[in-house]
Each structure stands twice: as structure tokens, then as C-alpha cells.
Here is the input.
Amino acid sequence: MSGSTKKSNLTAIGIVMLLLCNAESQALTNTQFDFQLDLEHQEIDLEQNSQLQSNAIGIRYQDRSGWPIGLDLYFGYMGASHDNISNTVAIDTSGYYLGLGISSSTSAEKTIQTGVDVSYVYYAGTDNSTGNSMELKWGQVDGRAWLMANISKRVKPYICATYLYLNGTQRVNGTSPSQTDLKNKDDFGGCAGLVFTMPEKGFIGIEAAGGAKEGVKVYFGKSFNY
Here is the structure.
């Protein structure tokens, strides 16, 4: 898919998010921000007939004081590898990620809650443990529209449709120097998960994803008031 088409898809996601915000006019929720610990493994097929894999642990902060608009901040540690490239076999990079996101949703008091999330995350990792040193750097846009069933106070299942855009670079220095542009092969996918709410506004969640981005995420968090 061309870059212009991908940009059009991102624009469409943004329009849907704005329409969702305008359609919802209820009062602010009582819990206004969350802290969340994320543990995530992801695998992304690339146009180069290779695969980018990463494991990450990090913190997500979500401010919902401006409900129905939420602001998300992400940061953490990650390890990543680029498979099926002959001169980078056995090289696993380690580094960090930083990100910013915007989310919008209908009221959590409704039986069926819907929402849209869009985030941009920058990943950077290096490895110098072999004869070749490698740098992996990429920016990743994740968009998703989700639906959650608030049928129980303790267990809340959800499903989502996802969109992915990845653009990055791999640089190898040493005996076999090279540079490779990285772009995702597929654009769309889906995910499903469960959120288990705990006493005192705590929560635990698990999510599995397929399609453009495959993987699993486990997260733990707590909601707070100002």
C-alpha cells in the first residue's frame, strides 16, 4: 500500500475519533488518570520479507481529565531483533521507546462502550556485542477502534479493529556494513482482550493481536482522582 493511501487511512481514523467525541456529551468521569505497567511482545512482517520482533516493558500514563478526550504518554525499555537478514543473524538490540497517544471513548457507565485510540511510538535500539554493530530505529503509528462489553463489574471483554504504519531504518556497521529501510507489509488487523477490575480502582488486562501486528500484551494499572 502506498504512503499516500496510508496517510489517508490515518486521516480517516482521526475523523472517526472527532465524530465520536462530538457525539458524546456526558459529564467527566470520577477517575481522571491512570498509571499502567505494560508487558508486550509483538511481531511485525515487513515488506522486505523479514520480520521485526520486540519485547517491551514500560509505563503508560493516561490523563482523562478532559474526557471524552484522553492523553496518553508511553515510555520504557525494549529489546528488538530483525530476522531473516543474513548479516544480522544473532544480533538482538536493546534500547528504549517513547510515545504519545490520543484516545476517545463513550461513557464507561454504558453497557456497551466504544472508543478510538491513536498513538505514535518511537523505538531505538543498538547492539555492539558481535563483529557487526546494529542500530534499529523506527516510528510506529497504531490506531484502533474498540468495543467493550461492561456486562460485569469485575470482567470486561473487548474486541478491536487495528491499523498499523511503521517506518524505520536498520544500520549495520563492521565487516558487512549495510542500511535497510523498514516498512510494514500489512496495514490492518484485530485484537481481543479481557480487563479484570480489582478493589480500590485497580485493574489487570490481557490482550492478543493478529494481522499486521501479532503478539500479546499483559498490563496492570490503577485509576486515581485529582
User: Anything to note?
Assistant: The first strand starts at residue 33 and ends at 45. The chain has one helix and eleven strands. The CA atoms of residues 128 and 134 lie 7 Å apart.
